[in-house]
Input
Amino acid sequence: MKDILSAPFMVEMVRTTNNMYAHGWDERNGGNVSLLLDEGEVGEYLDLTQVLRTIPTGFAAPQLDGKCFLVTGTGKYFKNVQFAPEVNLGIVRLTKGGETAELLWGFADGGQFTSEFPAHMMSHMARLAVDAANRVVMHCHPANLLAMTYVHSLDEREFTRTLWQMCTECIVVFPDGVNVLPWMLCGTNEIGEATAEKMKTARLVVWSQHGIYGAGRDLDETFGLIETAEKAAEIYMKIAHLPRLNTITDEQLHLLEGRFGVRGREGFLD
Ligand code: 2HA
Ligand code: ZN
Output
């Protein structure tokens, strides 16, 4: 067996959680990440017949039965992941229609996966139905996106259009736009179901007054998606209280669509 701490998926997860912390998106135990693993790849590092313990999930996820995920632990601090991956991260395999998680590695202090596991797994199901190559669901608390949910309309078209207008590359990076949930109680199956519903039409879902969810094919892409939206929100928070003399017009956004071969979300541009 190869050393799991040297596995590319592990190295990338440690680097990503560290980078998220460095960006200020994950204070204390804020944020959580899950990465769908290729079972063949995991098998190079772990004996897949050795289950350390089983953990009930509290929801059904039949489409994910048999799938393995590397996921951050509940109550764990992203700033600590790099120093003790085997305590702060775990690898679980879903069984019994997703109602049970088999721990294959990690959570070495007796811990378990993030409290937002329902939102993660339900979002994986929703994104895999749209894009079979989706591997990542990422949640964090970037300050400017959060701030925006206090002062900006939560209408998805309006919210998306504002972000697209803040940086030229936004419509290229997230042409599908941003969906928005009102404030809801976190850590529940209800917010998980609502997030997954929103994930059907966009890879970014804002949780008002809480944070954001992003989904993507790998950790870099998903990080970059959130990074780009957060940069746009930062520009917005710098200018929102000032008279706006210039903007990126819909005509210019259409030019970007043509130049980069993307289509903005249906009905979001005039
Ligand atoms: O686990 O971010 O939403 C910390 C969180 C919960
Ligand atoms: Zn959170």
Q: What stands out?
A: The longest strand covers residues 89-95. Residues 215 and 221 are 9 Å apart (CA to CA).
